[in-house]
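Dear colleagues,

I hope this message finds you well. In preparation for our joint manuscript, I am sending the Tetratricopeptide repeat protein (Streptomyces xiangluensis) sequence together with its predicted structure, so that both groups work from identical material. I would be grateful if you could confirm receipt.
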Amino acid sequence: MGPPHPPGPERSAAWRRWFADEARAERPDLATLCLLIGAEADGALDEAGMDAAQIELDRLAGELPFRPGGPQAWATALAEHLGGHCGFRGSAGDYQRLESSLLHEVLRRRRGLPILLSVVWMEVARRAGAHVYGVALPGHFVVGFGPPTRHPTTAPQEARRSTEFEEQVLADPFDGGRVMTGPDAELLVAGATGAPLDPSMLTPADPLDVVLRILNNIRAWASARPERGDVALWAVDLSLLLPSHPARLRYDRAQLLVQHGDFLAGATELDAYADIVAPVDEPAADRVRQQARAARAMLN
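The corresponding structure tokens are as follows:
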């Protein structure tokens, strides 16, 4: 994939309406939301391309063994099939590529960021009948199989269940689906936070939180490339369509508009954000209003 070429305004508006509707559905479809992010980034992706990506996920699921067993067996089967046979995994270089955050490109290249590879693992495993979910460990996204209560290494020996069917198993799709031991997870968390692994870190990630994290990754990619401020802007716009999002995104959007030379729209957004902040921090709201006045002054 070369430099990102976004869709035209009409098609972009249609994708955003679909994205907003899906995000507010009773059970949002994670794959669809990820593919709509891809459509906003890549003007070449149309509905037929999105359907093809969903069919590819179905095909990958159909190649798995039929209900291989408990969480450990599921994790192993996914690692052997997706990580081994199909070659899905990541590398340091994938962090430098926008397509590493786009599901249709990850399915094509079989490379991506940890969270997008985890989406592939989750969607394939879910279609095949596994109890699977994302686990947003600090600094690294993985997948979990089995009951998301406590990691076996964090529970007293006498409290552990006797079979693999009752224990949570973590796998790292970025490393080809390697099944993680308790010490693996503890070292990963300690390296990212300097703190010990807490059982609360092992709870399933909500699909919309996964989508917001993907959009944040895209914004981080764009922030390192000032010439790609347009990518940061649409990533913020999609984030604001989610039912729950940080209020700070309104401020970030205003700053991006000003940087793009849309001073009036940026000033309007700054004023709106100031109104949100004022009830809890009036001095901060005043500073934002000053920024809005400065943006309007640039129109002269």
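For the figure legend, we might mention the following. The chain has a mean pLDDT of 90. The first helix runs from residue 9 to 23.

With kind regards,
E.M.
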